[in-house]
Amino acid sequence: MKRIGVISTAVLFVLLGTAALGYRQQDQQDEKQNKPEQQGRPEKQKPEQQQKEQQQDQNRQQQERAQQQRQDQNNEQQQRAHQQQAQDKQQQQRAQQQQDQNKQQQQHDQQQHNQDTQQQERAHQQQDQNKQQQQRVQQQQDQNKQQQQRTQQQDQNRHQQAQQQQAEQQQHGQQQQQARLSQQRQQQLIEQQQQRVSQYRQHLVQERDRSQQQTAELQQQNRRSQYRFQQDYLERQRQQQITFRNDREHDYERDPYYYTAPSYRYNRGGSYYETNEYGADLLRQAVNHGYEEGFRTGEADRQDRWHSDYQDSYAYRDANYGYSGYYLSQDDYNFYFREGFRRGYEDGYSSRYEYGRYSNGSYSMLDAIVSQVLNLQSLR
Predict the structure, then answer these.
(1) In a domain, 363, yes or no
(2) What is the mean pLDDT of the chain?
(3) Could you tell me if 233 and 363 are in contact, meaning their C-beta atoms sit under 8 angstroms apart?
(4) HSE on the CB side for 184, CA within 13 Å?
(5) Which residues make Cβ contacts (< 8 Å) with residue 190, sequence separation at least 6?
(6) Residue 145: per-residue pLDDT
(7) CA–CA separation, 355 and 120 (whole Å)
(8) Coil, strand or helix: which one is 275?
(9) Which of 81, 213, 241, 257 is the most exposed place for a label (fewest CB within 10 A)?
(10) Which residues pair with 364 in a beta bridge?
């Protein structure tokens, strides 16, 4: 636009110059032509000349005004163009500012979103912590409740034990009055015992492979608690076996079991068997050992979230913990060990004490349940 205005102004100046030059030449010619006439009639032509000059002045002024108007118009156009450019520049600046504000707003919104997300995560974590705290409180309450139940049960057990001890003392006094077995019967019992010990030691050697197989299965099933229990069971059993092997020179002559007459009988599998007080004590021991191992096994399966199956346990199938080969047959010991094991497993898996109790770091079956399981009948 500016360039067009400059060119238009230059053309205007050329036209005006050309017209002025033409008018000047025309005036000179008119003056030459009219000079004689003027000289002859000077007074008469003077007003016409003045009129003509006035007309020329008017034309010139008119041209100047037209030229000035065009210049003013060009200047206004240039000013409007500058103003339009300034407005466009301001518009662009406002648009850029708006973009910057939008960008800042987006960044602010993103930061707010991140803060809200973090706040929600912290809230979830707090909820989880509160839930865990509630679970711990509930577990503590359950433990306190179980402790109270155990305390009550222990009080009952002490009373039952006192009665049982009194009865045992009476029975023991009766046994002391008994006569010894004959030498022939004692020798028969000793020979049976020696044969039984030999067979049992061979059995222990054969059990090693089965225990290793069971251990491998537990590892494959990822039953960590049951695996730890079985390792502990095998270690305790190994320590017992070392003690049994060291007792190779058993003093049968001084062992009262072999010269004490039977004082009880019990029924197993529809058949009756007789034993004395020492054999009866071992039967009670078998039931209590079975209960304790069963409780620990059931507890381990519960911790592993494994289905309830006491017969799947190696300790149940082995059923020899606490047995040395003396006083009872292995079948008798295994039978009553498993009777205690089954009840202990149910208590351990269900986290209760229906059949037994916990005292001084060990589990044992209630005396009343032991008497019920053995159902020993006095021969006197």
Answers:
(1) yes
(2) 78
(3) no
(4) 0
(5) 252, 258
(6) 67
(7) 49
(8) strand
(9) 213
(10) 357
Measured between alpha carbons, how far is residue 88 from residues 77, 80, 96 in Å? 16, 12, 12
Q: Look at residue 223 and tell me if it is in a domain.
A: yes
What does the pLDDT look like over 124-175, one tens digit per residue?
A: 778 777 777 777 667 666 655 655 555 455 456 555 654 665 555 455 445 4
Structure-block tokens of residue 233:
């069971």
In 177-257, which residue ranges form alpha helices assigned H by DSSP? 183-220, 224-246
The boundaries of the domain holding residue 369 are: 180-378
Residue with tokens 């039931």: 287
Task: Name residue 130's amino acid.
Answer: N
According to the model, what pLDDT value does residue 297 have?
Answer: 96
Question: Can you tell me the distance from the alpha carbon of 96 to that of 89, in angstroms, rounded to the nearest whole number?
Answer: 10
Got the DSSP string for 298-328? Answer: HHHHHHTTPPP-GGG-HHHHH--TT--SSSS
Q: Which residues contact 146 (CB under 8 A, 6 or more apart)?
A: 351, 353
Report how far residue 159's alpha carbon sits from residue 369's, in angstroms, rounded to the nearest whole number: 14
Evaluate whether residue 64 is within a structural domain: no
**H helices, E strands: number in the chain:** 8, 5
Structural contact between residues 178 and 263, judged by C-beta atoms closer than 8 angstroms? yes
Please indicate, yes or no, if residue 217 is contained in any of the structural domains.
yes
Cα 246 to Cα 43, 233, 279, 285, 339, distances in angstroms = 176, 20, 22, 21, 30
Q: Which residues in the chain land under pLDDT 70?
A: 1-46, 136-137, 139-180, 186, 202-209, 247-248
How do 271-275 and 377-378 pair as beta strands?
Answer: unpaired
